[in-house]
Predict the structure.
Amino acid sequence: MKSASTAPTFRIVYLSLLTAFAVAVHTAEAAIPVPIPVPGVKLGLANIITLFALVLYGYRSALVVASLRSIIGSLLIGTFMGFGFYLSFSGAVLSCLAMALFMNLYKDKKISLVSVSMAGAVTFNIVQLGLASVLVQNFILFRGYLPFLLFLAVPTGFFTGLAVIYLKQVAARVRATF
């Protein structure tokens, strides 16, 4: 049985592990070529870890995981403080906040984790595309790419949500054994 003084230590350790997993997935995903001819499209697999942190520990912890994943991941793949970093960081932070808002509906049993995840994926794409349009000063990008990115956000958000539902079930079984 954990004492009250060890609970914060366990939380920090678990969040560190989630951050490490998110960085590993972020880095691996950067190396995977996506066979879709839309620039900037990724599977968003690291968002699985962010949503899982949100479910387990709340929005502040998930925001830390998403932020550190973006910063450390960009340092490892060599995009820190570059165009891609700003897109990744802003998308990660704002999609995490959007998922945190949708978690209230999930807790009230009005939507599923799949819906929360899809909201995060859509937000991520809108934020990235909006920022890219501002940075390159070409707002036609927004009109041209938005339908494609939203179309692609649905299956990636769906998969992420299913993965987190599975992870949540596994975590509940693991907790039950201790």
